[in-house]
Amino acid sequence: MKTLLLSTCAALSVVCAGAAVAADLPVKAPPPVVVAAAPWTGCGLGFNVGGAYGDSWWSNTTTAYAGSYSLSGAVAGAQLYCDYQTGPLVIGLEGNYAWSSLDGNGTTPNAVVHQTTINSIGGAGGRVGLAVDKSLIYVRAQAVWAQIDHTQVLGFTNTVSDTRVGWGIGAGIEYMIAPVLTARIEYNYDDFGSKNYTYTNLPTLPYTEQTRFHVMKLGLNYKFW
Question: pTM of the full predicted structure?
Fold first, then answer.
């Protein structure tokens, strides 16, 4: 019995000593919390190509000189942008400019020929999108402007060049090919409202002209920051 008591006390001494040593050991720190990256945050430069179609209306007090016709052509340009991502939400600012071959013409009942040519299109505004895996689905709103030539042929050709300002809305999908490279497909609707023009061959008949068009573009962007 005495032997058993001695053995038990010895065993308890070993256990208590081990516990005391373990208590003195440093506690291992928990692993650091990993914050998810925001891959859409940054600024970039891109290029785009596409096509456009639209309408132009001409009207005045004499209906025989009024008319409308369709516009169509190609566009090619560039965009500069900056985006910020918080969670799945992406907000950004973008400016863009494109060369355009968009034009069209029509003849009124009085045999007056009207022609509208869109030489260039620009825009600046913001976009809001939702990041889903490597894709960004977004909508945009922007102020737009266009350099337009309005031509009237009645006895001789008379052209008025003007820079029109309007508003635009759009939507698109952008896909991240690599951390610094994305591709997008985008639709935009641009409306330039109406404006009055007077031609020297008909100075007493001012025209009211309305222009609007739709643009589909494919783009490639490089994020440099």
Answer: 0.80
